[in-house]
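Hi R.,

As promised, here are both runs. First protein below:
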Amino acid sequence: MTSPVTYETEGEIALIRIDNPPVNAASQAVRAGIEAAMTRFAEAPEKVAVLYAAGRTFIAGADITEFGKPPQPPGLPQVCDLLESQEKPLVCVIHGTALGGGLEVALGCHYRVMLKSARVGLPETLLGILPGAGGTQRLPRLIGLMPAAEIITSARQVPAAEALDLGIVDRLSEDEPRAAGLAYARDLLAEGAGPRRIGELSNPEVDEAAVAALREKVAKANPGQVAQLTALDAAVRGAPMTLPEGLKEERRLFMTLMESPQRGALIHAFFGERKVAQLPELKGVQPRALAQIGVIGGGTMGGGIAVACLLSGLSVVLIERDAEAVAKARAGIEKTLAGSVKRGKLKADKRDAILAEKLVTTDDYAALSDADLIIEAVFESMEVKKEVFSRLDDVAKPGAVLATNTSYLDVNEIAAATSRPGDVLGLHFFSPAHVMRLLEIVDAEQTAPEVLATGFALAKALKKVPVRAGVCDGFIGNRILRIFRLSADHMILAGASPFQIDRALKAFGFAMGPYAVADLAGLDIGYMTRQRLLPTKPEGERWGDWPDRLYELGRLGRKTGRGYYIYDEETPNGRPDPEIDEIIAAERAEKGITPREFTDEEIVERYMAAMINEAARVVGEGIAARPLDVDMVFLFGYGFPRWRGGPLFYADQIGLDKVLATIRDAAREDAWFWQPAPLLEKLAGEGRGFASLNG
C-alpha cells in the first residue's frame, strides 16, 4: 500500500510531503509515514528537511475514523518527540488549518512558516479531552504560559498574523507550501542554523494570580465541564517540570479524560452533527436548484431567515403586506447586517453589495416568480398561512419549493391549500434565524424526495444542522418541550418554586432555566399556545393557571420588565419576583393542594424523565428517525448541555431502568401524565439503550 507521506530531495534539502485527503488527518498511515521519513532523513546526506502537506490544508486534526478504536503505533506523542529529536533542522509549513495534532506536529518541528491565510489551534477540549501529544507542554514553553493556556482552554483558532505576533510561527509567506518551505530551508542553510528544540527553551513562568483569574473565567464559561480545567492543570503543572516530566503528566491527565463520560457525550455530539443529515432515503436523490430565495413576512423570523440566506451568498426577495411594512422589514435587515459589520463578521463593502445586489423587498407577490424556494414566515395562524400558500399557486414557477416556517401547525393541511402539495415542506428555523444553527425539516405526507433533499441542501448552504421531522403538533423539539415544561409546572403546583427549578436545571448544565427562558421569549407566546390547545385539552390533563394570570396582568417577561423575574437597571438579567410565589400559593390554596418540598435532585430527575419519555414517543412514532436526531435538536435548538450528549444519550448513561423508576414513582401522584412510552419500556425490558437504534 502506498504511503501518504513521500520523501524527495532538492539539493541539500529533503522535502517530506503529507498527502492524505481530504484534510490530511493524522491517521496511523500518516504517523507511520512521518516516522519512516524521519528515520531516512536522520541517515541521509540532506542537511535540512521541510515537512509540508498537499491539498487545501496541513494536518487538520486526528483521523475521526479511528475514534473509539484501539490506538495503533506509532502514537502521535512518539511522532512529535521523534520530530523534535532530529539532529538536523526541520521546517514545518502550515497552510489551511493546523488543528489539534496538526499544531502539535508543527510544534515538534524546529522552525515554522505559515501561509497568511492559515489558522492554528488546539480544539481538543471541545471533544472532552486535552491536547495529548505535547500541546499543553510545548506551546507554553514557546509563547508563555498564559497566552498558551488561553488558546488551549478556549479552543479558538488563531489567525496567521496573531500566530506570528505570539511567536507560534517564525515567519509568514504568500507562496504555496512547497515554495515557502524551500525558501525558509535555504535561508537556514545559508545561516548554518542547527535544530532549535522547544524542549530546550526555558520553563514558562507561572503567575499564580493570572492562573487563578483564568481558572475562574474558564469555569464560568464552561459550567460543569472538566476538560478545560484539566487542560489548564496540565499546562500549569508541567510549567516547572522538564519537558519529559511535563509530557508524562500531560499523558496521565489525558487518560483520565479519555475515561470521562463527558468525552463520550461530546464525541456523540461531534458525530451526530455530521450523521444527522445522512438519511438513507435521500441517498442518490438530487436536490432542486437553489439560487434565489423568496421570504414572505419580514418580522423577526422572516428578517432573520433573509439575513441567513444573504450571508450565505443567496439572493433574496422578501415580501411584506404594504409599503410601510416593506420599509420596516428592510430597515430591520439593514440593522442586523450593520451589527455584523460592527462585530467584524462582515466587511462594510460586502454589506453594501449584499443590500444593492442580493436583496429585493416589495409588497408585490409577482416578484417571487423566479424564486427557487419560497419560505413563508407569517403570523402563526392556519388561516393566514393557507391564504399565503393558495396565492403561491398563481405566482411560483413550476418546480419551486414551497416551505412553511410554522413552529407547530399541520404542514399537511398547509400543503393542501396548494395544487402542488409534493412541492411543500416545513422549514422550522429557530430565532434568531441567522444565528441559531438548528433547522427542523418537516417531511409532510406528500413531500417529494427531491423537495426534502432541497431542504437539506439549503441547510448545508446556510451552515445549519438539519434534522428531518415528521408532522405532529410541535414536530420534534416543541412537542417534547411542551411535555417537560408541563412537568415543571406540575412540580410547581405540588410545591416547588420556579426559581428553585431554574437553579437546579442551571446546575445540571442548561444555560437558563425554563422560567427564565419563558421571560426571554415572552409569556404571551406560552399564553397563545395554551389558548390554541385549550379546545383539544384532554380530560385529566392538569394545567397551572398562574401563567395566564401573569399574562392578564401584562407581565410578559423581559420586554415588559416583569415576568417570573424583575428586570430593571439594578438587575438587568433579572431577580426573582416574590409576588410570583404569592400568586402560585393562592392557586394551590384554591385547588386544595398542600405543598411539599422538592430536592434539586428530584427536580432534575422528573424534568429529564419527562423529556426522555416524550422523546421516546417521538422516536417510536417515527416523528424523529433516530434517537440521535432528538439529541441534535436539543443540543442545537434548546440549550441542552453539549457535554451531556443530548437527552437520549443521557438516558443511556444513567440507565433506562432509572428513568422508568422515576416515571413510575411520579405516576403515584399523576397517573394520567406519567405514562411510560412503549419504546422506553421495550428497550429497558430488553436491556438495550437508545444508541442501539442509531444505526
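And here is the second one, sequence first, then its C-alpha cells:
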Amino acid sequence: MLVHLTIENLGLIEHAELEMGPGLQVLTGETGVGKSMLLASMAILRGERTRTDLVRRTADRARVRGIFHFDESAALKISELLGSPIEDGELVIEREVRREGRSRCRIDGRENTTTLLRRIAPLLIEVIGQGHALTLLQPGAQLDLLDRFGGLQPLREEHARSWHEARGLATRILHIEEGVRARSDRRLFLEHILEELDQADFTGDERENLEQELELLEDRDRLLASIETVRQRFEQQEDSILDRLAQTRRDLQEMSDLHPGIEALVEGCAGSSILLSDAVRGLAEVESSLDLDAQLLEQKRQRVDQLVTLENRYQRIGVDLSDYREECREQLVVLGGDDDELPELREGLQRCISQLSEGAQRLHVARLAVVVQMVEQSTAELTDLGLGKARLEGQLMTLESGVGWNGMDERGADRFEILFCANPGETLRSIGDVASGGELSRLMLALQRVLAGSTRTGTLVFDEIDSGVGGRLGAAIGEKLNQIGIDHQVLCVTHLPQVACHGARHHRVIKESKGQVTSTRIEEVTGESRIRELASMLRGDRATERSLEEAREMYAEAQGLVRDPGH
C-alpha cells in the first residue's frame, strides 16, 4: 500500500505531503481546489504520460514521490518484475516531469524506464471513477472482471501466450506466402536500414553520454581555471599548503623523540604531503581529458547530430533505436525463410490451433462455473446500494463468426455480457442500454466489492464514485468502500459527508491565495476538526450547531462508536 506521498510543483500544489494507512482514506474539498492534481500524481506514479502544462507556473519541473509497503507475497511478485529484490518490503518510486517535456523515473533510487514502471503499476495503484465505470461498456471489459473474480488469470495468461505464439507462426507462414518479389522488396528495405544503422555503429546510451561530455567540455575553461587555482594554492604559491606541511614536519622532526604525540603528527604531515602531492599530480589527467582541439570537439558535435538525425528518421530514441535495429535483423532472418519450410510450418500451426482450442474449452468450462456465483454476489451488493429490485444476469457466449482468429482471440473463445434491469417487470438488457450514470457507478462499486479479495492491486483510488448519487445512499457507498478497505488500501475523493465519515483517515484539500500566488495544500483533519469538516459538507457553506450535532452522530455511527443501550 501507499504509505507516504510527496507532491511538488504540480498544478496549484507547491508542496504537499500525504500520510496514508490501511483501510479507507477519504479526501474532501471544494470543487476547483486541486483534488484532480492528487489523481494526476497517482497517474504519474503508475508511469502514465503526463501533460507538461501540469507543472506549476513558477517552476521548471514537478516531482511526485511515493513510498509503498508490501507483504511478502506482493514484494516477491514485484521483485520478479523488477529483476531485483525489494529491501524490507519497501519500494520508493519517484518521477520528475520537466516543463520542456523530458521526465525521469527512479525506482528505489535507481534510474529506470517508465515502461518498467507501467509493468508493476497494476500491483501498485488503480484509479476508479465514473469514467472508469464506462469501461464496463467496452468489449472484453466484463469478461476481464469475470476472470478476475474466478481467479482464472493464470489459465487465461497461458492461453494468451499460446495464442500469440500461434499467431506469430501464422504470421511467419504468411510472410513466406507473400511471394518472392514482396519478400525481396522488404528484404532490400530492411537491408538498407541495417546498413545505415550498422555503419553508424552506435550504442543505446551513446548520445546521452556524448551530450554530457560536450556539456563538460564546453564549460572546460571555468573548470581549468579552478584546477589552476587549486594547484597554486597547494604547491606553487609562496607559503603553499604543501610547503606549510613540510615546514611543520621539519620544525617538529627534532622533537619527535620527546613525545609519541609529536612523532604521530610528524608522520601525519609526511603522509598527508604524499597523498596531497599525488592528488594534485592527478589533476594533470583531468586537464588532459579536457584538452581537446577544436577539430575533435567539432567531430563529437557532428556525431551527436548524426545520432539525432537517425533517431528522428526512425522515430526512436537511444535503446529503442538499438532494439529497432535488432527487430529489423530478426525480420530479415524470417524473410530469408525458404518456401520448402511451408509444409512443416503449416503442420506445426495446425497442432498449435488444436491445442489452443482445447485450452479455450477448458477456459470456457471454468468460466461457466463462476458466472452464477459472480452475478449472485453482485446482486446482493446492489441491494445494499439502493438497487434492491435490480436484476443481473450473466451471459457467456461463443465469439461470433468472423471475430477473432480461428474462432478465438487472446481471451479465449468466449464473450461475456452482463444484462441489467433496475425495476421489476422490465426486460433484461445490456447495461449500456439501460443503466444510468449513477446506476453504472453503483454497479462498478458492487463489482469492485465482489472482486476485492481477488485483485492484487495494493491501492484503489475512487474518484467521486458517488457522483450523481444522493446523500441517502452515501452511507451505503461509504460502507462498501470500507469493506473493500479490508482487503486493500482505498483512497476516495468525495463530496458526500455520508461517505467521508466512514474513512479511517480524513484529509482535506485547501486552496489559498497570497497576493497574486494561489496554492493548494493537503491537511489531515481529526477530532473536532473532522466533525467541522463533515458539518460544512452537510451545510454547504459553514457549520451550525445543528449540522455539528448531525455530523457527530453520522461519524459515530460510521465508526461503530454508537452502542445499543440494551447491550
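A quick note on the second one: Residues 562-567 have pLDDT under 50 and may be disordered. Let me know what you think.

Best,
J.
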